[in-house]
Design goal:
Blueprint: E1 17-22, E2 25-31, E3 36-38, E4 46-48, E5 64-69, E6 75-80, E7 86-90, E8 95-100, E9 106-108, E10 117-119, E11 140-144, E12 148-154, E13 157-160
Parallel strand pairs: 3-4, 9-10
Antiparallel strand pairs: 1-2, 2-3, 5-6, 6-7, 7-8, 8-9, 11-12, 12-13
Length: 191
Amino acid sequence: GSLSLRADQANTVASSIIDFSIDNSEKMRITSGGNVGIGDTPSFKLDVNVTSNRARFKATSGDANIELSSIAGHDWLIQSKSDSSLAIYDEDEASERMRITAAGNVGIGTTSPNKKLEVNGNVGINNRLLLNSPNYNEHLNLRRGVYGTDFILTGNRLDFSPTTDTTLFKFLAPVQVVGDLDADDVTIDDW
């Protein structure tokens, strides 16, 4: 059978509510506009006000998912994964877009980041990239393909080794020097 809760079926009173009370204290209400409030008078479709500063959505097994859908119907999931990570999943494209691991590593375009930030794909920086480290071993390292390290920038030093011979640097475009160029043991070959 069905259970129906009805308030003001004849619509004789404006702004009727259904409230749920325990021990003479209201715990939940449904307004005439269809808003549901738990611990509060609702201003939204679901309004939760809890004294413990948290609300919980808990799965009994596997992942816990909260689905967000736009008016156009694009669906996103916020997933608390069973491996203790958090993921943002694009359900329409069937693709995970971002993950935060239990270790605090953030991955964009990868589901298993091994560094604090790991991006699989192109990255654009419109202002500047700041590297703030006093240690030589903590530096900006740009890598390309099988050759390994192309370019290391640290403090006031810039190292290049983009070919298989790490003593050789090959410029693939004209080099322009403004001011003096001081160099010892420099050989210029025609490639």
